[in-house]
Design the sequence.
C-alpha cells in the first residue's frame, strides 16, 4: 500500500471511524523486520473484543504486541529502539481510558508530548478526528471531543509527518524533510 520509506521520529495518522487509518499506519511499519504494536484498547465487551480480533488477524504474524491502556509513555520508553518502530493504536482510545480512570487528560497529554523527543526510535500514532461533527449535547462527550482536539493538535505540532486518511485515501498534511 505504501512505498517503503524512512519514518519520521513521530508520525500522526488521523481519520474518522473506519477511514482506513489503522491499515495505512500499519503499512508504514509492516516491512520492518522488527516492529511493535502498542495497543490501547481493552476488550470490555463482545463488540470491542471482535474489533481487537479483527485488527490482530489483519496484522498477522511479525508484530510484537504490547497492551497498555494507560501508561503509553512508560510503554514507549520501555520498547522504543532504533530498530523497532512502535505503532500506537490508538490515541483516542487511550484518551478515553485516561478520562475513564479519572486522570487529568490535559496533564497526561502534555506528558506524552514532552516524552516524544527523547524516544530513540520512530513512533506512528493513530488517532480519530472526532471534532468534525455535531457538538455533543452532554458535558462528558464535549470534554472528550475538546481533549481529543487538543491532543491531536499537540501531537501534530511535534510530528514530522501528519497524514489524514479519508475513505482509505491518505492525504499528507505535514511533511518535514
Sequence:
Amino acid at each position: 500500500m505504501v512505498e517503503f520509506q524512512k519514518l519520521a521520529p513521530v508520525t500522526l495518522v488521523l481519520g474518522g471511524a473506519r477511514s482506513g487509518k489503522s491499515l495505512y499506519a500499519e503499512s508504514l511499519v509492516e516491512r520492518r523486520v522488527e516492529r511493535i504494536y502498542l495497543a490501547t484498547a481493552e476488550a470490555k465487551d463482545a463488540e470491542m473484543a471482535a474489533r481487537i480480533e479483527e485488527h490482530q488477524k489483519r496484522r498477522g504474524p511479525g508484530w510484537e504486541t504490547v497492551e497498555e491502556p494507560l501508561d503509553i509513555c512508560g510503554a514507549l520508553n520501555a520498547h522504543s529502539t532504533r530498530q523497532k518502530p512502535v505503532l500506537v493504536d490508538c490515541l483516542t482510545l487511550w484518551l478515553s481510558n485516561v478520562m475513564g480512570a479519572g486522570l487529568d487528560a490535559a496533564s497526561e497529554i502534555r506528558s506524552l508530548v514532552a516524552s516524544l523527543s527523547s524516544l530513540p526510535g520512530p513512533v506512528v500514532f493513530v488517532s480519530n478526528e472526532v471534532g468534525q461533527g455535531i457538538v455533543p449535547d452532554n458535558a462528558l462527550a464535549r470534554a472528550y471531543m475538546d481533549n481529543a482536539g487538543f491532543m491531536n493538535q499537540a501531537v501534530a505540532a511535534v510530528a514530522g509527518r501528519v497524514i489524514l486518511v479519508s475513505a482509505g485515501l491518505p492525504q499528507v498534511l505535514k511533511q518535514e524533510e
About this structure: The domain at 10-175 is CATH 3.40.50.300 (Rossmann fold). Helices lie at 21-29, 46-59, 72-79, 91-100, 105-115, 139-158.
